[in-house]
Amino acid sequence: MRHLVHYPLVALLASFLACRSAAAAPVQELVVFEAASLKDVFAKLARRFERDNPGAKVVANAAGSQELRAQIEHGASADVMASADRKQMDALAAQGLVAAPSVFTCNEPVVVVRAGLASVIRALGDLPRAERIVIGAPEVPIGAYTVQILRNGAAKHGADFPARVQAKVASRELNVRQVLAKVALGEADAGVVYRTDAIAAGGKVTIVTIPPELNVVAEYPIAVLEAAPHRELARRWIDLVKSPAGAAPLREAGFAACPRR
Amino acid sequence: MSAGTPPRERRNGLAAIAWPAALGLLSGLLLLLVLLPVAGLLFTSSPGRLLRGLADPLVGPAVRLTVATTVASVVVIVACGTPLAWVLARRRHRLWRVLETVIELPVVLPPAVAGVALLLAFGRRGLLGPTLGALGIGLPFSTAAVVLAQSFVAAPFYVQAAIAAFRRLDADLVLVARTLGASWPRVFFTVALPLSWPALAGGAALSWARALGEFGATLMFAGNLGGRTQTLPLAIYTALESDLQTAQSLSIILVVVAFALLVAIRAGVRR
To answer: Residues of A with CB below 8 A from B115's CB?
Structure first.
């Protein structure tokens, strides 16, 4: 409570400092490469970061983690990389392009059900009751996770569970948003997407949580680039993302703390 | 007459150099822009890696489906587009002109938007959804949806070419045929079609090429399921997510097949 009282004061001070240093020092652009699912949360954090760090301006490049990785490999200049997938970050680290990645948040797949079917599909095990299911292609991360979840589901719902679900699959989409769009439009009865996407869809779909013992977790790593023009700012950005102030907007968007292993 | 070249001739001398130079430079630039990426696609891969890419299980069904659906789309477009173009070419009223413009819209629509539009028309909750549902027809996620998406985006190219061809017909020829007692169908089949056929074939080839490359509308309206709705462009994008080599092999097939068919059509038209 006491912290809140001081916020306006801090903001006022910060804006004074901002005015002063804007005149004195040139603007430093912190270039953040971020997985598309982080776009809204990072935009919120950027406003706060610019307030706390006068003279800094956050420039975001949101895209699929694979694309971001390819851009960095082809020499794109950036300060921070935040990936939705450990695979892409590990590949960058192996090439010496990023320094010491660390996981800062997690996202879990959920089942989404189209309007009007919420009473029919109430759990993962009800998926075969759908007429048309849309999932991610096994080549994209959400599709690979879905295959894993179905395999895990066999333990509880019978060995033929993956086959019974796959028999209802009408399309294997190339990204999460396309899976979501088809369920939100009512063309597909159910799909598997990340919780953050499901929340972004508002009330157009019903979210069915997958039991944690059957689910998988998508870990989001973040790192400073080895060739970052603004290392110190980049480190401060990562500190903010990992701080309680960063956790709040992440939680609102549907991200969760990673389970301990 | 003084010595030296007369001004007119000198100007011709300059034009004799500048004109071909300008032609060469400008057309060379455009050629390079098109040729270099194709060359990049072809020459950055080794035959061995290419063959391994071709062995990918995505390839066979995607090639078969692409040939079948694009041929079906061109048949639909020519069968329905020719009469439409004939009607549009011969009407002068403003309403018909509006219709002519409407037919062109799919060219400017971003393909994904075209896909959403198709869903909103033929999908479960689309305008025709309840009617189709009552008849037991489900279009989205079917091979028929692929053909619809391709026809939607590719039809304008044929229809525009056909309208232009029918407008170029000598009005006197049609008039003479009519005064000699030929019926409208006879005029259409024995005068209009034979005279317009090269332009029609060119338009059909362009439509076919567009259908071959169709991606966005298909992905949105028909989805991406191997053997049922996964055409070559979709297979290429799917492969791109995991393996650039397979994607490149598939792209080369697409380029080679398209090139061969376009050359064949050109040759057929000339004969």
So the answer is: none
Contact yes or no for A51/A15 (Cβ under 8 A): yes
List CB contacts (< 8 A) between B56 and chain A.
Answer: none
User: CB distance from A131 to chain B under 8 Å?
Assistant: no
H or E segment and range at residue A206: strand A205-208
Asked if the model's pLDDT at residue B111 lies above 70, the reply is yes
pLDDT above 70: percentage of residues in chain A: 90
Closest CA to A188 of B140, B20, B129: B140
Could you please report the per-residue DSSP string of B114-180? HHHHHHHHHSTTSTTHHHHHHTT---TTSHHHHHHHHHHHHHHHHHHHHHHHHHHS-HHHHHHHHHT
pLDDT of B160-184, one tens digit each? 999 999 998 878 888 888 888 888 8
Determine which of A65, A166, A185, A189 to mutate to test the interface with B (most B C-beta atoms within 10 Å). Answer: A185
Considering only A97-101, B75-79, B132-136, which range has the smallest mean pLDDT?
B132-136
Residue A103: closest CA among A248, A244, A241, A212? A241
Phi, psi dihedral angles at B125 (to 5 degrees):
-105, 15
Q: If you ran DSSP here, which 8-state letter would residue B188 be given?
A: I
Burial of A165-196, coded b for 16+ CB within 10 Å and e otherwise, reads: beebbbbbbbbbbbbbbbbbbbbbbbbbbbbb
Q: Give pLDDT, residue A25.
A: 57
Q: Is the ipTM of this complex over 0.95?
A: no
Search chain B and give the residue with CA nearest A65: B241
Q: Which amino acid is at A172?
A: R
- Can you tell me whether residue B71 is helix, strand or coil? helix
The torsion angles phi and psi of B263, rounded to 5 degrees, stand at -60, -45
State which H helix or E strand residue A136 sits in. strand A133-136
